[in-house]
């Protein structure tokens, strides 16, 4: 005998209602997964239990994208239908759409911060963990790139400083060698001073008195033009007078 058709009405027994909810929820999630795989469709399923517990399923864990797409299509459709409606109604729709988006972002933020995880399934937790691992890996890679760039810049700067130090040391060494060579030249005994630039002194004229030549000390008075003054005629004149 086949199963009878279940009458669709609220189950009054609390335990039976909970068991039926668990079974039907699993079957519903399974059917959603099957239709997404078989028909290559994007499926988003959201279920709230009578206690307010959330159960959801999304193709490739893209619930946010599917909801945003749904909001865009629903909003566009509502805009076409209510094109002649009042402006206040449009603002109400926009407010509802933005509020739903804000609620979704806040929920995701709490999940990323490790809060409100009781309502997430095992698959959702694994997907969240994978997302966090990917984000952490990207952060570490970026940090390592910045560290390598900083180290490379410091190495280049060190190389430039070393080259400058080598040039300065070479100049100092050449300067010291020049100073030492100059000091050695001054200490040599046969070092001669160049006097070619000094004016040459002319020899003093000699004074011939009585046939004898005297130098400058014996003849204090000379002619202005350096002439040789001879006193022999005057001496002969005096001798003749006597």
TrEMBL record:
It is found in: Nucleus. InterPro entries: MADS-box/MEF2_TF, MEF2-like_N, TF_Kbox, TF_MADSbox, TF_MADSbox_sf. Residues 95-178 form a coiled coil. Pfam families: K-box (PF01486), SRF-TF (PF00319). GO terms for molecular function: DNA-binding transcription factor activity; protein dimerization activity; RNA polymerase II transcription regulatory region sequence-specific DNA binding. Keywords: Coiled coil, DNA-binding, Nucleus, Transcription, Transcription regulation. Residues 88-178 form the K-box domain. Transmembrane segments: none annotated. This is Uncharacterized protein. It comes from Vigna angularis var. angularis.
